[in-house]
Amino acid sequence: MILLAFPLILASGLHADDLVAESARAGEWHSIETVVVTTAPDGIRLEVTDAGRTYGNASLVVTADWARWQAIIEIAAGHALVGLNPEVGHVLMGFEDLPNAFSLVLEQGRLAHTHWNAQPLGNYGQDLNVGVVSPEQEETALYVLKMHGYAGYFGIDINPERMPVEQALLNNMDALKAMNDRINALDHERIIWAANHPDKARGYIEAALIRARYPGTKGLSPMPKLGL
Q1: Which phi and psi (to 5°) does residue 30 adopt?
Q2: pLDDT, tens digit, for every residue of 22-37?
Q3: Is residue 139 within 8 Å of residue 182, measured between CB atoms?
């Protein structure tokens, strides 16, 4: 739904507030289906089609300033004006599954940034160094970001204890680099196939992650075969 939250005047002279009041009296709210923005001598003209009622496909003339009607242009173009910056610790404090929480935000196109640290489930916010608690949660969250094509930055959100801040930052950046390297080295085609055919790939993903997390380990059993 697009909310027109500042004064608009219809080309016919009817104030947009009258339309809102009419909808409110009827107990109905209608989303705007299309908005075409063009310039006009008396302002910015919006050709509006309402998904519920077209109001005669009325033209709206905006008399507000640039910042206000720029918001309408951004919304009409499909850009998100509100995004989320999930922090690993806060997600885990809420007993959420970290990769699932990231995925829900990404599915809606609302991920603006990410903040990284470590945290036991629940408890108070501890802002521990990345990877010192439940590193598998952070690795799977990074894998979700990769699958969604995330190319943004990783924010470090920590409260270093018993070490200089500079060393703590280096450790956290190294942890994220190492996790991403392990993820990038995985056989993604096989993992995606295994995830989509669990009946023919029992234990394959876990076995692949064990070997990625502990490279060079000797004496491991053979990798499970995929039922390709």
Answers
A1: -120, 135
A2: 433 333 434 444 455 5
A3: yes
